Write the structure tokens for this entry.
Amino acid sequence: MSQEYFIELCLEQARKAYHLGEVPVGCVVVKDNEVIAQAHNCVEKLKDPTAHAEMLALNVVSEHLGEKYLYGCHVYVSLEPCVMCSYAMILRRVERVIFLAQDYKHGGVMSLYNLFDDTRFNHRVRWEYLPVQEAQELIKKFFKNLRDQR
């Protein structure tokens, strides 16, 4: 399977979140070119501010693999991970993260903070920003609609 395939799955999850009234973030975790988990934000549904797509997907992967460390896993996420999700990926020893839109208010990778490149941590997560206009537009549209409702 190709990187484009994983990106499309990630965007499908973000679209699901959008249509459910959640912040439109989708996440796909891949190991050995196989999709292990897919998730989208469920903060509103679960009434849990930590129910980010990345956290939910990482939990599924750990359960599936029976491991706390996720060596060899690649995480595709539609929005730059926040500090909580970034640090969770460091703790879980994720190999690589690919994100599709920057998060200028909460980004933990490049926009606001840079946790993945911080040499004080004992694990470095490789990362790549692959801009996809739809991912950024979903976020903009979601928050514009939210503001308009108020």
Residues 3-19 form the longest helix (17 residues).
